[in-house]
Every structure is written in C-alpha cells, then in structure tokens.
Amino acid sequence: MACTTILVGKAASYDGSTIVARNEDSPNGVFEPKRFVSVDPAGRTSYTSVLGHLTVALPEAEGVRYTAMPNADLREGLWEEAGFNARNVAMSATETITSNERVLAADPLVTYRPAKGAPGEQGHEPERPGGIGEEDMVTLVLPYATSARDGVLRMGALLAEHGTYEMNGVAFQDADEIWWLETVGGHHWIARRVPDDAYVTMPNQLGIDSFDLDDAEGEGREHLCSPDLRAWMADNHLDLTLGGGSRFDPRAAFGSHTDSDHVYNTPRAWAMQRALNPHAGPWDRALPSEDFGPESDCLPWCRVPERKVTVEDVKYVLSLHYQGTPYDPYVADGAPTRGLYRPIGINRNSQLAVLQLRPGVEASRSALQWVSLGSNAFNALVPFYANVGSTPAYLADTTTHVTTDSFYWANRLVGALADASYGASLPHVERYQESLTSACAALVRRCDQEGGDLEACNQAIADECRRATDDLLDKVLFEASMRMRNGFSRSDN
User: Fold this and answer.
1) Percentage helix, strand, coil for the chain under 3-state DSSP, each rounded to 5
2) I need a surface site. Which of 66, 204, 306, 436 has the fewest CB within 10 A?
3) Checking phi first, is residue 251 left (phi over 0); if not, alpha (psi -120 to 50) or beta?
4) Chain-wide mean pLDDT for the chain?
5) Active-site annotation holder among 3, 225, 440, 465
C-alpha cells in the first residue's frame, strides 16, 4: 500500500506531544472508502485474514477498545490502519517498504498458496496460509499493546511465528516514546526509537540508516530486533559496512537501490525535509542526485527540525505536491519537469491519521486522532477524541457508493472538482482548510477546559465538518461548472 509517514518526537513538537502521522493511499485506479470507528474487541478469540487465509489466536482477556480507520468495503479485509487503544497506546500500520534480492533470498516472504487438487488425489498439496500483512497488523496488535515498546515486541513475536508476505514499516506510540519497526524479509525485523528532538520522514522505502546491534541485543534502550538478526546477517553476508562493528546501515543492507526509488520515493522525503529544515540546503540548487537533491540516497532517516513542529506543519508536509518547485503538477504547462515526481498529496490519498498524545491534559482526553479524508491537497485536518465508545455517523457510516452524507465521499468530490478548476477553486479550499481546522480545534480546547462529554464534542466537530464541507462543495462545483468546455458566453436572454 502506497503511503507517506512522518514521526515527531516529543521535544521536537510544539507542545511536547508525541505525534505519529501517515497517509494511507489507495493503489492506482482504485477507490478505497474509509471509515473512522471505535472497536470493542470483547469476545474475539481468533482472527482470520482475508488475503493471507491465516488464523491467529487472540489474547481475549488483554484486549481493550481502540479506534481504527477500516475499509468500508471488506472484500479484502479490515485494513484498520491507525488508532489509539484505551491505554493511550497508538499504532499506525503500515508504510509499505522495499527490499532487495539478497534479503528476500535469505528469508523469503511468506505468501499464500491455494490448495492444489483435491485431498486424496495424486499431486494434492494443501493450502498454505500467508503471513501477516497490512490487512491484519492493527487488529492483531493494537488492542493488546500496553506501551509503544510492548507493541514492537508483540509485532516482532507475530512476525517470527507467522512471517509476513510484504515488507512494511510500523509506528508505535505512547506519551513518552515513538518506535519505528521495519520488517526484513519474511520473518526478521528491526526497530528504532525516534529521538525525542527529531522527526522522521518515511516514503515507501526501508528507511533506518543507522542501527546498534549491541544495544538491540543488550538493554534495548534505542534499538530492538529479531534475536537472531546478527547471526542471520553474518550467514548471508548482508552487512555492507566497511570495517564491521556493532553499528551498521540497514538501509544499505536491507533496502532497495533502484532507479524507480528516485522518482517514486526519495523525492517525498526531500520535500518534507526541505519544508521543515529550509536552511539546511541547498535544496533547490543541488542537482537531483546530490546530497540535498530530490533523488539523493543520503537523506537522513531522522533530522532535528529548525523549529518545533506543529500539527499544521504535519498536515502541510503530508499534502505536498512540490509547490514552489518546478516539479509541481500544477505549474504552467510546458515545464519540462512538471509532474516528474510522485506527489505526497496525491489524487489517491484515502485517509490521513495524525495521532497526537498531549502532555498536561487529563489522560482520558489526551489522545486526539486528527482525520483527513480524500486528496490532502484539497481537504482539511480535523481532531477527534480517541477515548470514545462510538464515533459520529458522518465518518463511521461510509458506504461503498458516492453520497454527500459521507465525509469521505464529500471530500472525494471536492478534490476532483477543485483539481479541474484549480486556480479559481484554490482560494475557497484554502479558506476552508484554515477555518474548519481552527473551528474544530477550538471545540476541542473548549471541551478540554469545560470537561465536556467527549462523544458530544466529537459530534459537534462532525456537524461543523459537514456544514463547512457542504459549503465548499457548493463553491467548487460552481467554479468547475463555469469552466466546462461546452460553456458559451452569450446568454439566452
């Protein structure tokens, strides 16, 4: 699944929050309508995946309620993606990442194999379940995690037992820590704690660029990994570090190094870091493959920002389409580099979940799940309390058919119409983004101060979303209609 992730440590954020944010993007040519729900796992004793045909026993007694962003269409499974559990532990899964042939030969992915022939027949082969994947991970881990670190270890145990059929990056978060886990081949994994004073940018590539095996095998303060990782790497000659030692570069050892990365992946990390560290440059003078260029292989996994990062900054970087550069698909026709790189704010953004744990706020209301639906270039980011038993129907009851009764579909319509009338619609979109986000944040602020009911506040936020989005839809529909090719200036009267 195509995605883009940013992680912000508590000393790098504007108010001491830990922040985990990820775009979930649908495959090209597919809509994947999303819902925002609260889930009670009570009574679940096992789980069976749709794509992998894998059944996993669940620790029923340990499960607690959690929020999630599942698909409206369940033909390929839940795909719950991101949320908080009632213990104020968050998880975002997954960022699809890439690997290389050496890794996949040493530890092949665990793919589903259907049965061959009928039982008793010559040549019969029974069905072989696949490993776990993005479809499954939030469902299997989030209700049971007691901390970010515990989430990593639970995920690692599942990977060791069942394997995975795809390479993925997974974020875990609590009030003090953010951990980033990357799968390595079918059964192995590494995880690194995000430095408190830094942010992490992740396109669809294996990202961790420095790892301490001694720490991972010892105290595990900043690094965790599969217990046999060192021996497995040695047996398969995967460490490419000159001179050896306990520190190595996982990106070099386990990641991909293809030309397509330079078009699809690395420019997104470049755009985010360019926005958050504008003076680190020269971002716009470097040649594409140089250290500060959009095709650089040297962009760091984490970086200390020039100033503290806000939720608005997170939304901005996860909406980027290279504005202010010659790569913007909305620059004038004829620019030779127009649309050269894959945008972050792309037409097929399905949902953005910004998971924020706020310090100095009562624990029962400190978790905010900020939600955007549809293409990020044209939508707004709105906060909802996560510690709730239900979510508003405007977000929870998304259907598989188009309707303005759904926040998801209303935003899809806005994006398509605003794109078709970009210049005229952009001022309407910008006013909508600023006014809706600020109005909803003000509702949260008031609820915090007055100690109001969380579900009632969420409903008030949803009502404001519907009012503002309907108004925006009216405006962009008019602008797009006035630019239809069959328009004619002479009126009938």
Assistant:
1) 30, 20, 50
2) 306
3) alpha
4) 96
5) 3
C-alpha atoms less than 13 angstroms from C-alpha of 392 in its C-beta half-sphere: 24
316 touches 345 (CB < 8 A) = no
Q: Each residue of 92-135: pLDDT tens digit?
A: 999 999 999 999 999 999 999 999 988 888 888 999 999 999 99
Say if CB 376 and CB 318 are below 8 A apart.
yes
pTM (2 d.p.): 0.97
Phi-psi region of 367 (alpha: psi -120 to 50; beta: other; left: phi over 0): beta
- The single-letter code of the amino acid at 391 is T
3 given a catalytic annotation: yes
Task: Quickly tell me which residue has 């979109």 as its tokens.
Answer: 429
Q: What percent of the chain has pLDDT above 70?
A: 99
3-state secondary structure of 7: strand
| Whether CATH 1.20.1730.10 fits 3-377 | no
Q: How far apart are CA 345 and CA 188, in angstroms?
A: 32
Residue tagged 């979930």 (tokens):
24
Distance from CA of residue 15 to its chain's centroid?
22
| Range 338-369 burial, b when 16+ CB lie within 10 A, else e | eebbbbbbbbbbbbbbbbbbbeeeeeebbbbb
How far is 66 from 89, CA to CA, in rounded Å?
Answer: 9
CB 209 within 8 A of CB 251: yes
CA distance 187 to 32: 29
Distance of CA 431 to CAs 323, 425, 426, 439, Å?
18, 10, 9, 12
| pLDDT per residue as tens digits for the range 364-411 | 999 999 999 999 999 999 999 999 999 999 999 999 999 999 999 999
DSSP structure string for 147-191: SHHHHHHHHHHHHHHH-BSS-EEEEEE-SS-EEEEEEETTTEEEE
H or E, element range at 465: helix 454-481
Report whether 107 contacts 188 (CB < 8 A): yes
Provide CATH 3.60.60.10 ranges for the chain. Answer: 3-377
Pure H helices in 202-247: 213-217, 229-235
Backbone φ and ψ of 26, nearest 5°: -80, 160
CB count in 10 Å sphere of residue 446: 12
Digit-coded pLDDT (tens) for 217-259: 999 999 999 999 999 999 999 999 987 788 999 999 999 988 9
